[in-house]
What does this fold into?
Amino acid sequence: MSTPTQDVAEPASKVDLAQSSGGGGEIPSFDITLKVRRYDPEFSDEARWDEWTLTMYGTDRVLDALHKVKWEIDGSLTFRRSCAHGICGSDAMRINGRNRLACKTLLKDLDTSKPITVEPIKGLPVEKDLIVDMEPFFQSYREIMPFLVNNSPAPTAERLQSPEDRERFDDTTKCILCAACTSSCPVFWTDGQYFGPAAIVNAHRFIFDSRDDAGDMRLEVLNDKEGVWRCRTTFNCSDACPRGIEVTKAIQEVKTAILTRAM
Amino acid sequence: MQVHKYDVVIVGAGGAGMRAAIESGQRAHTAVLTKLYPTRSHTGAAQGGMCAALANVEEDNWEWHTFDTVKGGDYLVDQDAAEVMAKEAIDAVLDLEKMGLPFNRTPEGKIDQRRFGGHTRDHGKAAVRRACYAADRTGHMILQTLYQNCVKHNVEFHNEYYVLDLLTVEEDATREDGTPYKQKRVAGVVSYDLANGEIHVFQAKSVVFATGGLGKIFKTTSNAHTLTGDGMAIAYRAGIPLEDMEFVQFHPTGLAGLGILLSEAARGEGGILRNSEGERFMERYAPTIKDLAPRDIVARSMANEVREGRGCGPNKDYVLLDLTHLEPAHIDAKLPDITEFARTYLGVEPYTEPVPVFPTCHYAMGGVPTTVTSEVLQDNDTTVPGLYAAGEVACVSVHGSNRLGTNSLLDINVFGKRAGIAAAEYASTAEFVELPENPTARTEEMLATVRNGNGGERVAAIRAELQETMDANMQVFRSEETIKEALGVIENLRERYQQVQIQDKGRRFNLDLLEAVELGFLLDMAEVMTVAALHRQESRGGHYREDFPDRDDENFMLHSMLYQDPEAETEGTKGIRFETKPVVFTRYEPMERKY
It folds into this structure.
């Protein structure tokens, strides 16, 4: 990660391109059945499944299928989305029983011979269709003091940090707060008080930052009965993370830190 | 209707809004209204870096950065503003580091820096390492760091509150020379709570607009679905002019067919562009800095290669970004996210295969005119007391006719901070302006029209036609013919918009309704953009007219100022008044722009 900038040899002015450069060719189309869990308490207390058959293309993602329904068939289908390329964290949902971002899940990578099921993420109150109340999730995040605390006087220039120290917490800086991990955790499903993986990931990001002075306070928070010890290392969170963060490993490192830092 | 009172209301929770909130929140009773959750904003999608002349890895100074910004903007930049930005860039980066931003580091532990398009040593002699970065997720880190610090300072957010109107009042006033005029004053904003459809009025002494851009006017764009020009359109409808709206940046390297951004850092780290003949064609267009020429030049060169038949792929409609000569370990360290995008969305392995790319609509250089202290202008000389704007929604103008890469992350930090401080300071002495009678009337009427519409027109169909015509006619090459073609389509779509019908009639999370409202904003902004483009009969920066291929300083070294005015007509379009504003010069005389 923090390797210093290197000079690269000047590339050739002209090269022979492989025939296949850029891939491409005709983009294949195929039919899918999209099956979405619907719920709107303004009109009914009962949730239901709606199904549509759609013609989609090889580069389409689950988000494109949802948009096709919303824009061409049923404008009341409701879901959050924004950036549409896996960076804003708006569209975590349960796709074929697994938490993913709809904008990062290509339809062609799913089994299109069967209906593709889409449900809201679990463990958070459903508001409407695929929208859940994110407030409990952000509440846990805020409780672990997700900000740098440095008690020494600030230098005029930057605080120094070696590339190795920077690398130490790199993995957990990637978190986009999409809640895919927390809402995939069986412990969180049964006990909404549990901080959940995302909050622990964000605590990890600061606990292992050499510039931070509040690691012990965060470890104390996470040593709580609703803290890291509830984790049963089922690895659901690591599988769910759309950013490829090794979530379970980060949680293990926080557990070890609690034990070794002798609170 | 519920009425809330705050000293300062900030609209938008991207980089500019949250940077403003960190300042304002510590000085005044502040609320942030955002149509998304804060960490969903598109600042998070920025990748490559944020320039500041720290000189951590080689000689550099802020004057060179100012010059590059002015030249990069093809001399339409207000030089006083560029100077402020380049000077304050250094503290802006250091502020972020102290807030916790995990920048990449040099072996000595300082913030590492890398090359970026148009940023040069000593007035164009060679590329310089000026961009401070965190891998290729600098924007993500900025957004997270700013949100973390908002949490630290207990900033009050109202999430999923769509601001739909700006409340101003007008008072009779007299200029120094004795001429009477109408002085606008800000009273607050009207917002819509997505969760339940309720309307809230936020009365405020100061209002800061930090609502971002309007990329969704185009089909091929790096912008989020939610970037629909809301703030610009709301200000425009409230009688605030818009400046330089014809200037849109097309980022050279969008994933072909998708528009997803691949950072310029790919070229900063040594990647190059090739055409179907395997040729590094930028050697012909910008002999000195080649692939690191500013974005307008690279984007036009790419489009020209395709137009002259040297495009790649089955339809010869893209070129290639070649990283294959770089070490995979280097790519993993410096460009992990964008190479992952190429794999995920196109199935291309950047270690061994070049990546198909084509220009994608990326950034609006124009917007709501402001002073260097982020105060919004109601005309060339008059500010609106209490009204501020920062970030992409604003036009300071530090970007002129073409923004340099990394200068947007800088803009949001420098002018977001200035806006936050100025808004809080103004609020500390100002009184509340009395709300106009029926403050929600305009909003209620707009929503009712959309809710009750039964003309059968679909929002998505109109939006798709708008985006098609903008891509076809208003992209990197424009002419009177293509602009008029686009304008004709836009006028037709504006008619059809009156017949829009939505399907979701509920109150809860009615995004069907909001998408229709957003389409109204897009159509207004598309009209303003095309009228401004038609008027500017020259080529400058991001605005290239094939019928007027040269820059014309004699007639067009001026900012465009477009006002909504029912009495006026511009370029055959009713309801728009066109004026100009002089460009501010300090140190640099306009020169021919070569790289």
Q: What stands out?
A: The longest strand of chain B covers residues 161-174.
